[in-house]
């Protein structure tokens, strides 16, 4: 059995970095993940005039008396929460230009609801220079009410943007149908500990009374549930077992736990972490992604790889991003039997994988392909490692420490051969 540490959550950390820009005084965010997205956030904060840096696993930021008024296109296009960073600056200073966000491009990822939240708070919103120019008409955001729902469930990012506008608003705002993903709840705690007045109410509502200014606070990023899920699936797919330190069952969603336990995975808390093993063979199952606490979309590609090894027919239904299936061509190259119809994948297994040369074009796609290569006979070559670095600080070294044979291909830092 191997033991494996878990990094801080990428998706929580990114929203905390943005929230820190609303605060006065020095902020330290502990357990920050050592990923390229963290480095980009340091650069964005620095460009905005903050003193920002990353030492060990501590992200430090001290916002200036007045933040700058633009997020450089080359930085904002590299990460997903660019509009949240924009909202933090807008709520503080009344003006920001930001490019359209980046992050994974597995399908269209609109930000209309972020812009509606800014407009509801009294901003003019104009498309300019390939990005968005937003200005408040008054010195502070005005209080507003809105729903954060979309046809695909509540928007996580737009909930954070709306909260950022509301915490500095003149009056009390009411947000309906908010996302209650851990990313949002940790951001709420962080803002409240710096003096914000956000009250979460039953029925996914929030009532926020704006304050003149936020003080400062420190916080700790929770374990990355997506890294936990990924390594748990790696153990299951290779018939191994692993003790993931610094994490508990409670860090995972009921949607994920119910699904993988039905497939045959055993996960239980031990004093020093979460123990994971497979109970005999991998059983077929059904993955249906959805908003928290349902099965997270960011573990769907990895779960698809796992189900190719199940004895029978499985189904994956992607409800958050209806076209998140960039991993299926790569999995088919290993031999997977996957039929796709709209947002549904039908997977017939088990397939004995043979090695393949494949490329992943987004974080979880390339992760799913690394997992497939672990299950394949022979040496596979995987390109697209740049995407892995965006979200995992050390996934490959961790898999190697657990017994996987993986080497980085020389003169091509974007390629590995498991
Ligand atoms: C609720 C949810 O699971 N959110 C996921 C989403 O967060 P992220 O914040 O990136 O995306 P949203 O939560 O905003 O998007 C959820 C859904 O709403 C739609 N939408 C969003 C904004 C908008 O203005 N209009 C609109 O229609 C999106 O296209 C998507 O279908 O992607 C991240 C990266 O994969 C995941 O970590 C998050 O768990
Ligand atoms: C899609 C993801 O990230 P991002 O929103 O940063 O693109 C992810 O974490 O799986």
Automatic annotation (TrEMBL):
<dbReference type="InterPro" id="IPR001986">
    <property type="entry name" value="Enolpyruvate_Tfrase_dom"/>
</dbReference>
<protein>
    <recommendedName>
        <fullName>UDP-N-acetylglucosamine 1-carboxyvinyltransferase</fullName>
        <ecNumber>2.5.1.7</ecNumber>
    </recommendedName>
</protein>
<keyword id="KW-0132">Cell division</keyword>
<keyword id="KW-0131">Cell cycle</keyword>
<comment type="function">
    <text>Cell wall formation. Adds enolpyruvyl to UDP-N-acetylglucosamine.</text>
</comment>
<keyword id="KW-0963">Cytoplasm</keyword>
<dbReference type="Pfam" id="PF00275">
    <property type="entry name" value="EPSP_synthase"/>
</dbReference>
<dbReference type="GO" id="GO:0008360">
    <property type="term" value="P:regulation of cell shape"/>
</dbReference>
<comment type="pathway">
    <text>Cell wall biogenesis; peptidoglycan biosynthesis.</text>
</comment>
<dbReference type="GO" id="GO:0051301">
    <property type="term" value="P:cell division"/>
</dbReference>
<keyword id="KW-0133">Cell shape</keyword>
<dbReference type="InterPro" id="IPR050068">
    <property type="entry name" value="MurA_subfamily"/>
</dbReference>
<keyword id="KW-0573">Peptidoglycan synthesis</keyword>
<feature type="domain" description="Enolpyruvate transferase">
    <location>
        <begin position="2"/>
        <end position="399"/>
    </location>
</feature>
<keyword id="KW-0808">Transferase</keyword>
<dbReference type="GO" id="GO:0005737">
    <property type="term" value="C:cytoplasm"/>
</dbReference>
<dbReference type="InterPro" id="IPR013792">
    <property type="entry name" value="RNA3'P_cycl/enolpyr_Trfase_a/b"/>
</dbReference>
<keyword id="KW-0961">Cell wall biogenesis/degradation</keyword>
<dbReference type="GO" id="GO:0071555">
    <property type="term" value="P:cell wall organization"/>
</dbReference>
<dbReference type="GO" id="GO:0009252">
    <property type="term" value="P:peptidoglycan biosynthetic process"/>
</dbReference>
<dbReference type="GO" id="GO:0008760">
    <property type="term" value="F:UDP-N-acetylglucosamine 1-carboxyvinyltransferase activity"/>
</dbReference>
<comment type="similarity">
    <text>Belongs to the EPSP synthase family. MurA subfamily.</text>
</comment>
<dbReference type="InterPro" id="IPR036968">
    <property type="entry name" value="Enolpyruvate_Tfrase_sf"/>
</dbReference>
């Amino acid at each position: 059995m191997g033991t494996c540490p878990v990094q801080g959550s990428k998706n929580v950390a990114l929203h905390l970095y943005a929230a820190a820009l609303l605060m006065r005084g020095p902020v330290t965010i502990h357990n920050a993940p050592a990923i390229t997205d963290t480095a980009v956030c340091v650069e964005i904060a620095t460009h905005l005039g903050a003193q920002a840096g990353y030492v060990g696993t501590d992200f430090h930021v001290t916002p200036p008396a007045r933040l700058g008024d633009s997020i450089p296109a080359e930085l904002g296009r590299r990460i997903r929460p660019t509009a949240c960073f924009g909202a933090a600056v807008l709520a503080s200073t009344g003006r920001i230009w930001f490019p359209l966000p980046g992050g994974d491009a597995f399908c269209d990822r609109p930000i209309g609801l972020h812009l509606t939240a800014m407009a509801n708070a009294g901003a003019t919103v104009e498309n300019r220079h390939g990005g968005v120019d937003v200005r408040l008409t008054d010195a502070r955001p005005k209080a507003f009410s809105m729903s954060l729902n979309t046809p695909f469930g509540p928007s996580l990012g737009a909930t954070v943007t709306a909260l950022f506008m509301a915490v500095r608003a003149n009056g009390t705002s009411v947000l309906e149908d908010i996302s209650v993903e851990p990313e949002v709840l940790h951001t709420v705690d962080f803002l409240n500990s710096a003096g914000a007045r956000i009250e979460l109410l039953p029925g996914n509502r929030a009532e926020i009374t704006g304050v003149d200014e936020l003080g400062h606070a420190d916080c700790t990023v929770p374990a990355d549930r997506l890294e936990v899920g990924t390594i748990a699936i790696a153990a299951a797919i290779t018939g191994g077992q692993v003790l993931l330190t610094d994490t508990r069952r409670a860090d995972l969603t009921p949607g994920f736990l119910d699904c993988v336990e039905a497939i045959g995975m055993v996960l239980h808390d031990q004093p020093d972490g979460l123990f994971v093993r497979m109970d005999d063979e991998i059983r077929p199952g059904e993955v249906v992604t959805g908003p928290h606490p349902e099965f997270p979309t960011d573990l769907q590609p990895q779960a698809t790889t796992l189900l190719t090894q199940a004895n029978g027919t499985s189904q994956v239904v992607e409800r958050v991003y209806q076209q998140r299936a960039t991993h299926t061509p790569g999995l088919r190259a290993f031999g997977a039997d996957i039929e796709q119809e709209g947002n549904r994948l039908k997977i017939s297994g088990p397939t004995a994988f043979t090695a393949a040369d494949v490329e992943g074009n987004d974080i979880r796609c390339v992760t799913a392909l690394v997992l497939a290569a672990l299950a394949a006979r022979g040496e596979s070559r995987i390109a697209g490692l740049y995407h892995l670095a965006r979200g995992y600080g050390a996934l490959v070294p961790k898999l190697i420490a657990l017994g996987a044979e993986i080497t980085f291909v020389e003169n091509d830092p974007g390629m590995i051969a498991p």
